[in-house]
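G.,

No rush on this.
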Amino acid sequence: MRGLEHLPADSLAETVSEILKRDGAVIVDNLVEPQAMDAIVAELQPWFDATPFGPDSFSGRRTKRTGGLVARSPLCRDIVMHPLVLAVSGKLLDHSHSFQLHLTQAIAIGAGEPAQTIHRDQWAFDFFPFPRGYDVQCNTLWAMTDFTEENGATRVIPGSNLFDDKLKFQSEDTVPAEMRKGSVLLYSGSVYHGGGANRSTATRIGLNITYNVSWLRQEENQYLSVPLEIARTLPVELLRLIGYQRGAYALGYVDDLRDPIEVVRPDLKKLGLGDLQASQARAQNQTAAR
């Protein structure tokens, strides 16, 4: 089995997205400075300390999953809005009207945690069998510590984004996403993967930021995770990304057809639905392309 492809930090979004569509996963090395990851870990430390371990083997009984990062960590907002990641997400999910922030989670896999079950993240959508090659998620896992095979680097099956659905695999069928702190693994919701076993004495920490098409529900409820008083302080583009925008022609409006952005930014008031003709043309183009 081939390993995961590594690209330099100055790679073009087109290059990254081509490999992502082909393999289902790709690593961009050293996309941010290691010190940036250290600063986020320090900012989140009180939240890490307060987060309980997972309640089952899938979430990890020696693993902590700390969410709500847009509200809790101003530094994480820059990672959520990273230009290369947003550009790649837009290309992978370009069959949709728009995409949104799906979840934010710092995953700390403790020493002694066994390997996670190999799965597809898109199974979160009630195990709906999306057509092969039709992606609804673009995921990122940023290395907040070095990722090694020993400390539980995420395990991936390259090319499995084009496999049949609901298959079963073991860790032996995968390769480790080893990377240095500040690097990022981009992977689709359709690729088979799972957290690796942590056989070291240290905790492996990854920053999981995921995006999905705007007509599907977000895994993390951003409207409740980000209190309104904090939402009102955020940049407009981040507000739209966490869900204060229409998901398609007639998805997500507020009461009398108001644009959801108006709830937090009344100065951006815009009445009515979206562009019906543009939405129909997009759907027709996608059907013709299949």
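When you get to it, here's the other one too:
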Amino acid sequence: MSREIEAIKQAVINGDSEATASLTEKALAAGIDPIEILERGISDGAKIVGEQFERMDIFLTELMLSGEAMIAGLNVVLPKIKSEEVPQKGKVVVGTVRGDVHEIGKNIFKSLLIANGFEVSDIGVDVPTSKFVEEAERIKADIIAVSALMTSTLGGQKDVIDFLEQIGIRDKYIVMVGGGPTNQVWADEIGADGFAETAPEAVRVASQLIEKRRA
């Protein structure tokens, strides 16, 4: 691995957005392949950070900083890559349910999805049930990921699944749920396809669910 790529990876691990963007620009100027920068620099850095968080070697604040560094690097390198050159794992709609304005977990999940080859449409927070479905239809999504960070808004996750069933397209989408008060029992109860306790784990689950569907 070149020194430039190693430096980008380390900047992501360190959560240094300014350094990540600057080093990415320098690597591009030096003629390094944008795909290599994306996969071996930014994405590999993201994977290491995810593993560190799961082992509880780092805290949420550090994970958030690394997520911002990832986005900084992606903003520099993605415009240099032709869309057909990047193997897309799938399309994901992410949002937080109506009545809930928490977005930290959603944003970390989104950053890791992008770094791992997913196309993501982030529809924000306090999202009406119908908007999840409208956006999924618009971008021809594979996954609808529904976040809820308060016990009082958990029902919004069930509402999305119920709405899909009511309009007859439930089987068209993989539905994932996540957030502080969610758990596997709740996911099973409402008929969700996937659940994960952490953002890195959620990315793995998303990949596995898409692979299973396409097999």
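The mean pLDDT is 91. DSSP finds nine helices and five strands in the chain.

Enjoy the weekend,
O.
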